[in-house]
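Hey, resending since the last one bounced:
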Amino acid sequence: MYNSPRYEVADIFRLYAGEYLKQRIVPASHRKVINALMQCRTAALGGHIDKCDNPACNHIRISYNSCRNRHCPKCNSFKRIKWLLSRKEELLPVKYFHVVFTLPAFLEEYSLKYPEKLYNLLFKSAWDTLNCFGHDPKNLGAQTGMIAVLHTWGQTLYPHTHLHCIVPGGGITKAGYWKNAKIKSIKSKRKKDFIFPVKALSPMFRGKFRSGLKEFIDKGDVIINEPCKSFNNKIYKHKWVVNSHQPMEGPDKVIDYLGKYVNRIAISNHRIISIENGKVTFSYTNYNTGKKGQVMQLDAIEFIHRFLLHVLPKGFFKIRHYGILSNRNKANVIKNLRNEFGVKVIPQDNAKHLSFKELFQLTTGRHPDLCPKCKKGLYKCIIEFPPIRGDPSYYFEFIVKKYA
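The C-alpha cells again:
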C-alpha cells in the first residue's frame, strides 16, 4: 500500500526558495523548476471536483492538476511505468547486462558548466566503446544494442555523472542472425560474468571521451581552467570507472532492474526526514560502505542549490537507445528476432497509447475512480476549475454546497 511522504521537496521550495532567489543569480530554467514544483497539485494549476455516483454516498473529492515537470518527485511514476511497459514489448529471451560508465570527479565542474556538450559526449563515448567491442570478432563479432539512462547525482546530491546501460548478451551478425556473446568470467570469491572484458573497457572509454573533449577544447566550445598538459595528465592519472553487473535473465527481471533507474530524480520525497530551523534532514545510502539509512543534514539553501544542479538542459533526452535497440532499427529487428527465437510477436507501442486510468487499472488491479469511502460508487467529474490565485476555500465551499 502506498504511504504518502510526510515532507516534500516542494515544501522546502515554498519555505526557502524566496531566500535562495535573493542570495543567488538563478537561470530561467531553474526558476521554472522551482515554480513548477511549488505549484504542483495545488489550486494554482487548477483541477477538477468529482462526486461519487452512489446515491447513498455522494462523497466529493477535489483533485489538483500536476505540473508534469520531469524534475518533480510527484510526476514521474506514470511516465516510468509507461516506459517500462513499452520496453517489455521489446525484450528478447537472452541475458542482459548492466554496465555503468562514470566520469571522474575532476570533470564535474565542466559538466555543470557545459552540461549539454559533456552529457552528449558521455553517451557517445559509452556507445562507441561498447559498439567497438561488439564488432570485434574476439569478443562478439556482431551488432549489439544499448539502452542508456543518465544520472547526474550521488546519494548526497553532489554531482556524480554516470550512465546506467542495459546491454543484451549478444547481437546480430551480418547475415542477420542472432549470436550470443562469449561471456567473460573473473575468478573471485563470487564468480562474476561480464559481456566484455571490464578492464579493457575503461581505457577505451577514457580515450574516446578524451578525443571528443579535445575537439571541444580546440574549437573553444569548452574552456579549461589550467594548462592543457596539466589537464591531460589528470585525464590519464584519474581512474575511469566502468562497472559491469551480473547478467539478468528474463524480461521480468530486466524490467524490475530498469525500474530502479529510469525517470528518477536526484532525491525522492520519501527520503526527506525533517524540515525545521532552516535545515533539511534526509536519508541516503553510503555505497562505499554498503550502509543504508545513513542520515545527512544540510542547510535548506544548500539543499536547494544541490537539487538544482541536476536540472537538465531544455529538450535534453536522458534516456537513449542505440544499435539494434535504437528507434530506427528495433521495429523490424525485434520482430525478426522474436520469430527466430520462436517467441510470440507483441504489437509495438501498446503501452504508449494507454491513458492514466487504463495504466492505473492495469498495474494496480483496481479502478482509479473507485470511491474509497463507500467502495461501491465511482467518481464522476462535476466541474473543472481553472488556476486559482490566493485562498480557494471560498470557491470550493460554494461548489460543494451547490452539488452536495
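The chain has three domains: 1-23+268-303, 92-266+309-348, 350-404.

Sorry for the duplicate.
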